[in-house]
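We close this part of the discussion by returning to an individual protein. The sequence in question and its structure tokens are set out directly beneath this paragraph:
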Amino acid sequence: MTLDATVQAHVGVLNLDVSLQADHETVAVLGPNGAGKTTLLRAIAGFTPLDHGHVVIDDVVVENTTTGAYVVPERRSIGVVFQDYLLFPHLSVLDNVAFGLRSRHVSRHDAQRTATEWLTRVGLSDRASARPRELSGGQQQRVALARALAIGPQLLLLDEPLAALDVGIRTELRRDLRTHLASFSGAKILVTHELLDAVALADRLVILEHGRVAQAGTVDEVCATPRSQYVADLVGVNLLQGVADQRQVTLSGGGTVVTAEPEDGPVFVAIPPRAVSLHRTRPGGSPRNVWPGRINSADPLGDRVRVHIDGTVPLTAEITTAAVRDLGLKVGAEVWAAVKATEISVYAR
């Protein structure tokens, strides 16, 4: 069960132009607010009209602007889990799950039997007669997922399915959702702004920025080689740009970086914050890269602290709270940042 979609659509100031394919896998679509993530899902589902493009599900054309083919949303073999779930408040949990089947002219008896089966699968058979307002956020999410899957779709679309949940139950519901997604054999498109959700649930990532695909690949590929500042911030690495001449990179903002691997031409340089050591005086020894700077801010992160340094080579270092205390680091303090060449990734732009 596959998806092949090319979506070109203007919505307000957004100019969306995205091609997306999925094949028996979960693809997570990430991006900053306004990047077009939800618009992409709505276009695939048929709720947002295409200016140009096509949507093909399992070789069935449900929309093609060239030929004029168009299948209304309720006739597409798509299950949708909306961010706020959109459960009908006047219907019972059972009737909510059965709704999609009834709208496809399945008899009431058969629809309720299937709905009951799905409520059992998601662990809510005992709440069949309840109204949505009587459920917790996590229970509402499971009802929405059961409703989407009860129709037997070929494609499942999930728009921020964990966003409405309290932090305390997200881990449990993320685990449950992963189990349910694994049981669905079709393509799954998950919109999220949380990298943790994407890493836990997806086989592949697609990053949108300004209505375009900025980067795509497996979780490991994207995390190892971010290609924009948004992606670098998302995966938590320092990203610099420059021009490489073998093992020396002249940075766009000034300064140089020495790398262990040779490259030539325009490159990205990725430095993990934990690879950055801080010193109050210029360090000697093995580091090939040493730069002066001034502490701009320091953010606690559990038993560690993320220290943001302004300088010719701006960096974020992640060090222990003990190191912060021992070095007497404060906002405004002058420091030296050091990174070993072997800790640096360099790859072509």
Observations:
- The domain at 2-232 is CATH 3.40.50.300 (Rossmann fold).
